[in-house]
Specification:
This protein has 49 residues and is mainly α. The protein is built from one helix and no strands. The protein has a domain of 29 residues. 47% of the residues lie in helices and 0% in strands. The model has no long low-confidence stretch (mean pLDDT 84).
């Protein structure tokens, strides 16, 4: 691996994006964007314990 920063690693879920239709690419992008929002929400949520 050339770069060990998490944001600079290849995403295995988009590995074959060049074979997808435009609609499937948009679906993939939206799913990936959702994971970012969910992670940020978890970090921003108050501690429930």
């Amino acid at each position: 691996m050339l770069d060990d920063r998490l944001t600079e690693q290849r995403n295995p879920r988009s590995r074959e994006s060049d074979t997808l239709s435009p609609l499937k690419i948009v679906d993939l992008i939206n799913r990936e964007d959702r994971t970012v929002a969910e992670a940020v929400g978890l970090e921003a949520a108050p501690d429930e314990s």
